[in-house]
Amino acid sequence: MQERVRTTGKLFRIGLAAGRSTPGDRLRWWGLFCAAAAVAFVTLATVATVATYHGRETRADARGPVITFSKDATLLYREGIDSVGSRPVSIVFVHPLTPEAPLPAGVARWPDPGEVLLSPELVRTGRGEGILNRYGRFAGTITNDGLVTPSERIAYVRVADSPPKGDPRWMGVSAFGSGGGATGEMADQPSVTSPVLALWALTGLPALALAVVAARVGSRTRDRRSSLLQALGGTWRHRMIVNIGEAAIPAVLGTLTAFVPYAVASVWDTRLAPTGYILDHRDVWAAWPAAMASAAVSLLVVLGIVVGTHRIARDGTSTRPASFTSRVPAWRLVACGVGVALVLTSQYVPRKAQLVVFTCGTVVMWAFLSSVVALLTRHLGSWLAANGKRRGHAGRMIGGRWTHAHPGVIVRLALAMVIGIGIVAQMQVWTSRLGAHSQAAAATHQRIKDTVIEVTASGMTAPETDRFRSSLPAGSILLNRTFYDPGASRDPWTTIGGSCRDLRRLHVTCDGDTRAVTGGSAQLAKVEEMRRWYGDLRFTQVPRISVKPDGTQSLLVVTPAPGQLAAVKQAAFTLPNPSVQVEALGGNWLGSSRSRLPNWIQLFGVTGILFILVAGSMSAAAEFVRVRHALAPLSVLTGHRRVFRSVTSWHLTVPLLISTVVTGAVTAWHSVFFIALVQEGSVSWTILGYGITACAAVSLTVGFLGARAAAREANQWRPTAD
């Protein structure tokens, strides 16, 4: 046992010494450092995501109302919806029935009648829209204990008058502390698997690709050392210890570095740009034990990649390294096929599992697509070598032989481009997934801004609507909208009612049910937008505006100029029995959670692209080091330096161009398939074309710089005994 421990220590020290003295050691040291930091960063981000979900649910339950239908209710409670900009706001209207009315978490006392408590983020973002006076007099803020996240926008409004009896919107509450899943940001919260899948698909995969590239930087010396250890009788365990010793210091330091942003997020609330979401530091702090365990696992994954990418022949009959530089392992091709199969079969699984299966297949496919490209380029290398030999073209023959002998080089160089194009394409497709209604809402807002506003109210008498009209901005038109559904025999229609004076201002005649009169004014554009949203639209004259309590009617406010939505909201929310919802035409689709999805895709995708850029730069730098030393003697053998450009073109540029073409075709198919699966979104062929063009330019640049590095090395090359 002592002998084994002593041997292990010696081998580990050999690995430590090798890490400081092997060719390209600084490049690989920093590569492993960045790779370990990237993998640990994604792992810790996953821990923070899961912890945040747990904290959100805990705080939502703490403020959730316990609804009761008995007479022991001490508080009347109902919910409403508003928005600040395009972000939704949750409104909770309350009316305490006794001085002992219960309080939710985050509220020390109920404000006086007509006063309101606002979340800090709502105060910050809504100050310019008059949020301090929109629902009543501002009486203070809600503490973080009552918010699912510090970035939540929520308001507690104590109505000024007693709610009317029989209003079904008001519910009796006996206590708080149960079932708050439908309040505030929890109303449309997706499952935790959605952000985790997006995180690993857009950021985790590039981090793992960076780890693979870093592990293989300067791999020739390590492969020779592994084969030497085998020739001396060393087992896989001995080789593993040496490889771990070589990679241990940069991997450990990189993992520890990843804790810096996690530690900051566990001490201070952190806003995630460009989403605007604020991480609650209490959730991150509570997950420190899980974070340390996850970081240890990520370190083991990086070391496992280092060990797994340095292999030798298993039969023990040869000391030649059986690394990825000499052949393409068959299991990588099988894995890529499995990824494609998962993508294809995702359309046949249950609807809820389709996106999960598709995402898993996508990750596997992009991870191993470069290996398929390497196999193609290896066969291409054989053909190029034979063609160059037959035609007497030295550069083509040498480049072809190198490509055939070292397909792993092409894999590492192509990996960054393959995954990079995939990430850019997925970011664009996911960003386009706003849906027809959200796109229509954006188009409506572009044409008429917020000049048509719908006010949802549960019953209003004519005197109440007259009072509401008097609070509206000067020049506003007040109408009511009635929805008619005659049943299966006829199609439904919508009626817009108003005074004759108001209808004429909209270029509508006043003789019974009519349609808009032809005209080219801005008012007519508002009528056309109403028709787009309400379908079969008819106008009718009514002497006085009122709203039935059966839910078939609502109010419409048409303002003379845009920018008066805040004033209309203040007039509606300060009524004795405030409205449930006030929004511009189609505004609920502008503020939906899916309209904010592109911000999260951008956050994950840009981070992943940064990792890919590091991987591509490192792989190219390592290849320049190898090429310049290997090509330098050719100037003596050929008598000219044109051979440098020729060899690097056939060995690097041509295979990378082939990788770009294959990747572009697969990306186009993958994007179109995804759109067909979710039945929404669109492919931007322009963006895809830009991505392919950029990768083609990179391919040409890599070949040019490789030839330039070899030419400069040739000036200093002298024969040496090796």
List the helices and strands and how they pair.
Blueprint: H1 2-21, H2 25-63, E1 65-68, E2 75-84, E3 87-96, E4 115-118, H3 120-126, H4 131-134, E5 137-141, E6 154-158, E7 171-176, H5 193-216, H6 219-231, H7 236-267, E8 270-272, E9 277-279, H8 281-286, H9 288-308, H10 330-345, H11 351-391, H12 394-405, H13 407-431, H14 435-448, E10 452-456, H15 462-470, E11 477-484, E12 493-498, H16 500-505, H17 522-534, E13 537-541, E14 553-558, H18 565-573, E15 581-584, H19 587-590, H20 597-631, H21 634-638, H22 642-678, H23 685-714
Helix pairs in contact: 1-7, 2-5, 2-7, 2-9, 2-20, 5-9, 5-11, 5-13, 5-20, 6-7, 7-9, 10-11, 11-12, 11-13, 11-22, 12-22, 13-20, 13-22, 13-23, 20-23, 22-23
Structural account:
- The chain is an alpha+beta fold.
- Helix content is 58%, strand content 12%.
- It has helices at residues 2-21, 25-63, 120-126, 131-134, 193-216, 219-231, 236-267, 281-286, 288-308, 330-345, 351-391, 394-405, 407-431, 435-448, 462-470, 500-505, 522-534, 565-573, 587-590, 597-631, 634-638, 642-678, 685-714; strands spanning 65-68, 75-84, 87-96, 115-118, 137-141, 154-158, 171-176, 270-272, 277-279, 452-456, 477-484, 493-498, 537-541, 553-558, 581-584.
- A seven-stranded mixed β-sheet has the order 1-7-2-3-6-4-5.
- Helix 2 (25-63) packs antiparallel against helix 5 (193-216), helix 2 (25-63) packs across helix 7 and helix 7 (236-267) runs antiparallel to helix 9.
- The radius of gyration is 33 Å and the shape is elongated.
- It starts with a helix and ends in an 8-residue tail after the last helix.
- Mean pLDDT is 81; it is low at 321-325 and 512-520.
